[in-house]
Amino acid sequence: MKSDKSFIGTPCVVHAAALADADLDADPLDPAQIVSGAPEVRHLELASGTDLAVGVWQHGPGVSTDTEADEVFVVLGGSATIEVEDGPVLDVGPGDVVLMPAGARTVWTVHETLRKVYAVRT
Q1: What is the pLDDT confidence band of residue 14, given thresholds at 50, 70 and 90?
Q2: Which burial class, exposed, middle or buried, applies to 28 when counting CB atoms under 10 A from its CB (0-12, 13-18, 19+)?
Q3: What is the mean pLDDT of residues 11-33?
Q4: Cβ-contact 86, 54 below 8 angstroms
Q5: pLDDT tops 70 at residue 54
Q6: What is the mean predicted confidence (pLDDT) over 43-50?
Q7: In this structure, are strands 10-13 and 41-48 parallel, antiparallel, or unpaired?
Q8: Using alpha carbons only, how large is the chain's radius of gyration in Å?
Q9: What is the distance between the alpha carbons of residues 13 and 117, in angstroms, rounded to a whole number?
Q10: Which residues contact 116 (CB under 8 A, 6 or more apart)?
Q11: Residue 22: pLDDT band by 50, 70, 90 thresholds?
């Protein structure tokens, strides 16, 4: 269903879903990012524009690295420890809200498949 409203200046599709159970597309990590295990990563883009992207992201058990973008996310399910280089160590689970600054280098240790809904400044 199309909306007559706009999202970031462009027409958007209205999405309504039980995001904790929504089907996500495979989005494999770059092998250089995998520290241990064989984490399966999945993704569903809900909306994107020139300044902002919104979606659902899932990371299976394992350890991987990342360089973050400006992002806020809410954990829908699962648990992880996120080590921020020269910063805090975050233990996150359902209901937690996290703000990541662009350029933060992180190590994600996912204990139980982590699913989050995110908004990223592009």
Answers
A1: low
A2: exposed
A3: 82
A4: no
A5: yes
A6: 90
A7: unpaired
A8: 15
A9: 17
A10: 56, 57, 58, 73, 74, 75, 76
A11: confident
User: Structure tokens of 115?
Assistant: 């699913």
Structure tokens at 8: 């970031």
Q: HEC profile for 53-106?
A: EEEEEEECCEEEEEECCCEEEEEEEEEEEEEECCCCEEEECCCCEEEECCCCEE
Written as six digits, the tokens of 76 are 């829908």
Q: Which residue has the tokens 């990223």?
A: 120
What DSSP designation does 29 have? P
Query: What pLDDT is recorded for position 16?
Result: 59
Instruction: Copy the structure tokens of residue 12.
Output: 């958007």
Task: Say what the pLDDT of residue 12 is.
Answer: 56
| Residue 103: exposure state from Cβ atoms within 10 A (0-12, 13-18, ≥19) | exposed
